[in-house]
Amino acid sequence: MDVNDKIANQLQKGAKTADELLAVLPELAHSPQGADVLRLLLRLDKNVRLLDNGRYTLTPSAQTPADRIVSEAQAFMAPIPGSGATLNSVIDHVVKQTGYAPEQVRAVLIQRFMTRGDLIAKKLK
């Protein structure tokens, strides 16, 4: 899980200040410029917004990376006749659409969808 995913997961639990986020991100907390890097990441992420009280939150339409992977996989498999597709074809599609690492996509798909060997069903677990 990369830093952006960790930020999204923390903000999904509720609004947090930059200091609160920094406390749970050791990869940034141990860097002298960690606070500046965190604020830059927060400012550049279009799924994050700064509230008037100085806390950061996810925009209402923001999804976690896992939610986005599931959504892309469902959109890909919906027009396919039958009960599913090959796992590798779904992984390839989701990676192209999201830019996430194939290993991350595979892990989420296996965790969230019914799979059997190289096949993935349209049905969620």
Task: Please give a structural write-up.
The protein is α+β, with helices and mostly antiparallel strands and 125 residues long. Helix content is 54%, strand content 15%. The chain contains seven helices and five strands. The strands form two sheets. It has a three-stranded antiparallel sheet with strand order 3-5-4. Helix 5 (65-77) crosses helix 6, helix 5 crosses helix 7 (102-112) and helix 6 (87-98) packs across helix 7 (102-112). The radius of gyration is 17 Å and the shape is elongated.
What labels describe this entry?
single chain; 125 residues; alpha+beta; three-stranded antiparallel sheet; two-stranded antiparallel sheet; 7 helices
End-to-end Cα distance, whole Å, is 22 Å
Average pLDDT over all residues: 91
The best one-word shape is elongated
Radius of gyration, Cα only, in angstroms? 17 Å
The computed structural class is: alpha+beta
Can you count the beta strands? 5
Proportion of beta-strand residues:
15-25%
Order of helices and strands: HHHHEEHEHHEE
Q: Tell me the number of helical segments per DSSP (H or I, 4 or more residues long).
A: 7
Strand order of the largest sheet: 3-5-4
Low-confidence stretches: none
Roughly what percent helix?
Answer: 40-55%
Sheet of most strands: 3 strands, antiparallel
